[in-house]
Amino acid sequence: MRRKPKEEIDDPRRELLIQALSAGMFAGAAGIIQPVYAMGKIPKELVPGKSIYDMRGNVNVNGTPANLDTQIQATDTITTGRSSHVVFAVGKDAFVLRSNSQLKLSGSGLLVNTLRLVTGKLLSVFGKSKHRMHTPNATIGIRGTGIYVEADPEQSYVCTCYGVVDLLADKDEASKETITSEHHDAPRYILSGESAGKNIRSAPMINHTDLELQIIEELVGRTLPYSIAGGGYSSPRKEDY
Predict the structure, then answer these.
(1) Residue 81: inside a domain, yes or no?
(2) 176 domain residue, yes or no
(3) Which CATH number belongs to the domain containing residue 62 in this structure?
(4) Which of 2, 128, 183, 212 has its CA 20 to 30 A from that of 232?
(5) Is 41 within a domain?
(6) DSSP 157
(7) What are the φ and ψ backbone dihedral angles of 41, each rounded to 5 degrees?
(8) 54 is in which domain, residue-wise?
(9) What is the pTM of this model?
(10) Which of 158, 196, 189, 201 is nearest to 174 (CA)?
C-alpha cells in the first residue's frame, strides 16, 4: 500500500524561529531568544572564507563536528542530527539543511554542480549555473532557482519556489515534468511504485517560507524575485555576477 504524503512540520521550534527572524532574533537551541542582527535587518552577504551563517545542535561536515568557522566545499558531505539545522553557502548557492538530514555535494572548489539529498529536508537557492539534485527516487534538473526538497526512500517532495526545474521519477521514464514557477506555483510529490506516468502528483506548499528564502538569497548577495509583503512576482533576482 502506498504511503500517504507527509505534511508534518519538521521541528515545532522552527515556527518560533521564523517569527523570531521577522523580529530580528534567532531562537536558541534551548528556546532562548537571542539577538543576531540589529533592528530586524536580514543577513548580508557572507564574507569570503565564511560558509556557515547559523547552526544548531549536531552538525557534521565529512564526519567532523562543525562550528561557525567550518568552511564547506563543493565536495563535502553535511549531516544533521535530531533537532538540528545548518544555514550555509557554497559559492553562489545557499542552503538550509534541516534536522535528521544528509546532503552530499559534488563539484570543484566552491562550484557545486551535483547534490544528493540522501535523506531529510533541504531549502536551496542557486546561482546561474545548472545543477542536478538526486533523491532516493528522483532526479531534479535545476536551472537557477529556489527549491525546497524532502527525501525519503519511497517518496520525494519538490516545491519549485521560483525558476525552472526538470523532474524525473527514477524508475519511471514516463513520469517526468518541467516546472516553471514564479511563486511556489506547482509543488509536486514524486512517488515510487505507481503505474507508468503516474509517479508525479500535485502537492501543497509545506514546511518552508519566503522569509527563509530571502535570508539565504541575501547570504549570496541576491534578492528574492518577488515582494514578501505583496506575495507576487515583481522582477528578476538581483545578481552580483
Answers:
(1) yes
(2) yes
(3) 2.60.120.1440
(4) 128
(5) no
(6) E
(7) -70, 145
(8) 48-219
(9) 0.82
(10) 196
